[in-house]
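Reviewers of the previous submission asked for a worked example of the structure-prediction workflow described in the proposal, so we include one complete record here. The input consisted solely of the amino acid sequence. No template or homolog information was supplied to the procedure at any stage.
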Amino acid sequence: MSFVLRAFQKGIDGVFIGACHLNECNYIAHGNYHALNMVLLFKRIMEHIGLNPDRLRIQFMSGAEANIFVDSTNDFVKTIKKIGPLGVSEGLDQDTLAARLADVGKLIPYIKVTMRDKLAARAEGPYDAVFTKEEVDKLFAEVIAYWIDPEKCQACTTCFRRCPAEAIISAKGQIHIIDQDKCIKCGTCFEVCPPKFRAVTKLVGVPAPPPLPEDQRGVVRKAKEKEVA
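From that input alone, the workflow returned the following structure tokens.
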């Protein structure tokens, strides 16, 4: 998905993907099903941001079907020429297009995590129903964010050590911070935060509050709070 996005970010007018026939993959992973699901999902994402989904196509063929390769690529080229340059026929100026693609790029890890079950499944027709417009609209409207509550964090480093994306900013004796640009929104920090602290909050559809300034991140131990009280 990231490669397709990168192509559009670089101004490519259309992306054509060739894949082996379904159920004829030589590898047990059956990556052609994953590629199909990725294309079907990304077409919906393109619709969501205002791009013509016909700019992306996947064609199944074998190594012996040169005629299908030639015919399908020629047809795709004709389709893209008819649609026109990226963003122009959609009425998007370059700045708006770049901003929308950049926003999608930030959410690619989150999208993969959220849609991992459907992306791993063997899609069955009708393909238009695999990922619905409403499903993708909701995906973008209800983006998840995780935030560490400064009043609850005790700098135990559990989330820091378990985060698969190394998105937790940790320093000895300081409140931990989630780097929202690195966070893939997998929920690991939320799951592993010790129940006695419950410092990680799951936010839906709203951005995480800004992090505390570095000079205000000192942890106040719960035991000391009780002593002061």
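The CA atoms of residues 45 and 104 lie 8 Å apart. We consider this example representative of the routine output the project will generate in years two and three.
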